[in-house]
Amino acid sequence: MSALVEELRWRGLLQDMTEGAAEHLAEAPRSGYIGFDPTASSLHVGNLLVVMDLVHLQRHGHTPIALVGGGTGLIGDPSGKDAERQLLTKEEAAENAEGIRGQLEHFLDFAVDPNAAVMRNNLDWLSELALVDFLRDIGKHFSVNQLMAKESMKRRLEDPDVGLSYTEFSYILMQSYDFLELYRRDGCTVQFGGSDQWGNITAGTDLIRRVDGGKAFGIVSPLITDASGRKFGKTESGTVWLDPERTSPYAFYQFWLNIDDADAVKCLKYFSLLSKEEIAELEAATEAEPYKRVAQKALGADVTRRVHGETGLAKALQATDALFGGDLAGLSAPDIADVFGDVPSSEVGAEALAAEGKLIVDLLEESGVATSKGDARRSIEGGGIYLNNRRIESTDYRVTAEDAIGGRFLVLRKGKKNYHLTVVSEARHA
After folding, report:
1. Residues 171, 200: Cα–Cα separation, whole Å
2. Contact, 192 vs 34, CB < 8 A?
3. Of the CATH numbers 3.40.50.10860, 3.40.50.620, 3.40.50.1970, 3.10.129.10, which one belongs to the domain with range 3-221?
4. For residues 257, 258, 261 and 265, what is the CA-based torsion angle, rounded to 10 degrees?
5. In angstroms, how far is CA 137 from the centroid of its own chain?
6. CA distances from 248 to 245, 253, 327, 359, 397 (A)
7. Where in the chain is the domain with CATH 1.10.240.10?
8. Cβ neighbours of residue 359 closer than 8 Å, sequence gap 6 or more
9. Nearest residue to 171 (alpha-carbon basis) of 153, 194, 157, 183
10. What is the pTM of this model?
11. Are 282 and 274 in contact (CB under 8 A)?
12. 284, 367, 380, 398: which has the highest count of C-beta atoms within 10 A?
């Protein structure tokens, strides 16, 4: 039995595989691939499950191939989709492909010998295809009856308001041809993917057998949801991206920190490289003291470090600490907006902070942090008012532009947890 298959099974990353796949991987080092459609310039958390398949593939001595669908991405995979994807331009697909490669370099080693990761773009061969030759040499091996019987196809065909374009219908032929090309170019014999790709993958193994008489195999991972049944990687605010410009390191870390206790250990197996023993210890600690979120913190640190580096993790931890009264020094205006984006907010004109500034008691009343100037004075005298997490000692304190973080934000706090974000608006000119 393949050590790789055993690890994938233990980690919950194996849902199904074609006959003989385990034995094939146990016999000798192999090459295996996963395809990524460049529908965006960044991967997202939902992509990480199959990325980890490639990580484990390489760790076990095999060669991982990341195939970016510069060609198929111009069409769009109908699998698991209720409507046709918006078509990309070639320029958009190429730009997105470059972004994806940069992110995969955080997970895969493209220089290690002898099983360095390989990056391919199917536009390199799909753009060279002649239609008549493709239909004659490849299309003849596909039964329309079989294609229409696939669940993803049936669902779309049965919806009279959506349907299925011929462009999308041809996607499975092109993905199968990708497998054939990689089989010929790189000796690739295994395709990995999510379980929604099972039909596409087995179509590729069949094509290799029929056209070249070769043996190829497929392995699929489960499609995971969180404890609430929501698609993994989605939050109330949207998709969690690997690109720090789309999802900050702080928000990325918070996603993992806020994972439900019921999902924490599973996610440690899915997304970390921690051992059985380490995960067992974290599981025991979480069960004993769930409020400490030990498993979530270990998971968040592991994945954030890999995606955003030590610097990104440090900033995420600093921003997290700030939410609980830690030092705000060193946090940028975007960091503040990220950390305190969901707290009550108000606005103050920049002109009010000019010169001598604005009395803190006035700011507290106008922002609604205090119900009145009297309430503001009493709260300050009782030691319960903070500006940028620094306690205000005097009711005569004046807030100036120098207090505004990045010239944009004032973080007010009443008591231990009642935060308020005051946004400094630009000075108005007469």
Report:
1. 9
2. yes
3. 3.40.50.620
4. -40
5. 38
6. 6, 9, 19, 34, 34
7. 234-322
8. 396, 397, 398, 399
9. 153
10. 0.85
11. yes
12. 380
| Cα distances (Å, whole numbers) of residue 130 to 40, 126, 314 | 28, 9, 52
- Kindly report the CATH number that applies to the domain delimited by 234-322: 1.10.240.10
- pLDDT tens, per residue, the chain with 430 residues: 699 999 999 999 999 999 999 999 999 999 999 999 888 889 999 999 999 999 999 999 999 999 998 888 777 655 544 444 566 788 888 889 889 999 999 999 999 999 999 999 999 999 999 999 999 999 999 888 877 777 667 776 777 676 777 777 788 899 999 999 999 999 999 999 999 899 889 999 999 999 999 999 999 999 988 777 777 876 666 889 999 999 999 999 999 999 999 999 999 999 999 999 999 999 999 999 999 999 999 999 999 999 999 999 999 999 999 888 888 888 888 889 989 988 999 999 999 999 899 999 999 999 999 999 999 999 999 999 999 999 999 999 999 999 999 999 999 999 988 999 999 997 554 4
Chain region(s) in the chain for CATH 3.40.50.620 = 3-221
Residue 241 amino acid letter: W
Rounded-to-integer distance, Cα 66 and Cα 54, Å: 8
Q: Where in the chain is the domain with CATH 3.10.290.10?
A: 338-425
Q: Which two tokens stand for residue 10?
A: 């233990």
The DSSP symbol for 355 reads: T
Return the amino acid letter for 413: R
